[in-house]
Amino acid sequence: MNDHVTANAAPLPFIDVGAQRARLGTRIDEAVTRVLNHCRFVNGPEVIELEKQLAEFAGAKHAISCSSGTDALAMLLMAWGVGPGDAVFCPSFTFCATAEVVPWVGATPVFVDVLADTFNMDPASLEAAIAVAERQGLKPRVVIPVDLFGQPADLDAILAISTAHGLKVLCDTAQGFGATWNGKRTGSFGDATATSFFPAKPLGCFGDGGAIFTDDDELVTVLKSVREHGQGVDKYENVRIGMTGRLDTIQAAILLEKLAIFEDEVAARDRAAKRYNEALADVCIVPMVDPRATSVWAQYTIRLPHGVRDGLAATLQKEGVPTAVYYRIPMHKQPAYAQYPAAGNGLPVSEALSGEVISLPMHAYLDEASQDRIIAAVRRALGK
Ligand SMILES: *Cc1c(COP(=O)(O)O)cnc(C)c1O
Asked: Where are the beta strands (DSSP E) in 293-355?
């Protein structure tokens, strides 16, 4: 490793969207031009083709494209008729959208702690949260396990608890699309799965987009109605309250080109993660992947002793190495969410992680020289 990296080297990107664009050459431009020529900007042929390919990729019977990951979550709660008096269980250590959609439909988010090793929903805390909800007179309806930083949650345990309590399982794989659990891709577990194609996600479009996966034919009919203002058999008959939830044809055309190289990109991210693990395991806590899982490494997130993180970020920034903190405030401590119930113990793991984690640059085009520069800077900053 090069220990003589200059502090004034050009800053590295945190995610290199440009490198992917260069690799795809004119393919995206041509795909967009095709849409500009056929002018079917909404519900065009690329949307139908993308849904077919996404379902195949995920191993689900159906894929329903939509306007964002957040809308994918909301559309499912709407389709299931979740509402006032219902409890929806969300991890506290997540992006806000997981829980945000719950008050939209008038239901109550109940926050659950995460595991210290995988950062994903703690099944024991889910059990505690169900008991809290019942004591408060709420009806346990849905659990939303999140595949945080690209690794699937413990679906074996969460599905077992959900079956025992009659909960629907809405998997939030906005960060984990393409990852596997017991050899099967996310999108093929639970009652339904929501994902996001926000540009920074492992599979991103050039704007906002998302998708829902399910094997449930009846749910698909309802979701398609929700996506189009609650339309009935006739387009201008409204049989329920819906929304504008569609994915643009241009975004679908872009995603088709990106999906073609996605497996290769996931493999490159995995190689980069393994190199980080080997080079950093002696100076910090490197990510742990459950033996039943593979990760798509939406983030490469290390954990440090309390009080070290922000100093490290400042030092790295001076050396042109960007970092990010996901997430600095757990959901149950957020001003807009602190009023909602949480599993009984104060969610100590979520609180500790929010003060101790930091994410390093991670993308499919991270070359070894740039990665060595990041590794050397981290080791130097930690005095190793
Ligand atoms: C990004 C994200 C979402 C929301 O996706 P958008 O497409 O940005 O609406 C939901 N849940 C998690 C865990 C996310 O990371």
From this structure: 293-294, 300-303
Q: Among 15, 112, 198, name the best residue to mutate to test ligand 1's pocket (greatest count of ligand atoms within 8 A of Cβ).
A: 198
CB atoms within 10 A of CB 101: 28
∠ Cα 322 328 329 (to 5°): 160
- Tens of pLDDT along the chain (384 residues) come to 444 445 557 899 999 989 999 999 899 999 999 999 999 999 999 999 999 999 999 999 999 999 999 999 999 999 999 999 999 999 999 999 999 999 999 999 999 999 999 999 999 999 999 999 999 999 999 999 999 999 999 999 999 999 999 999 999 999 999 999 999 999 999 999 999 999 999 999 999 999 999 999 999 999 999 999 999 989 899 999 999 999 999 999 999 999 999 999 999 999 999 999 999 999 999 999 999 999 999 999 999 999 999 999 999 999 999 999 999 999 999 999 999 999 987 899 999 999 999 999 999 999 999 999 999 999 999 988
383 CA distance to ligand 1 centroid (A)?
36
User: What's the 209 CA to ligand 1 centre distance in angstroms?
Assistant: 10
Q: How far is the CA of 30 from the centre of ligand 1 (A)?
A: 28
| 75 CA to centre of own chain | 17
Span from the CA of 228 to the centroid of ligand 1 (angstroms):
21
Pocket of ligand 1 (CB under 6 A): 68-70, 94-95, 97-98, 146, 172, 174-175, 196, 198, 208, 210
Which residue puts its alpha carbon closest to atom 2 of ligand 1?
174
Contact 125, 344 (CB under 8 A): no
User: E strand or H helix at 86, and its extent?
Assistant: strand 86-91
Backbone angles phi, psi at 370, to 5 degrees: -65, -40
Model confidence, pTM: 0.97
Ligand 1 pocket test target in 73, 93, 95, 243 with most atoms within 8 Å of CB: 95
State the closest ligand 1 atom to the C-alpha of 73, by its place in the atom list counted from 1: 10
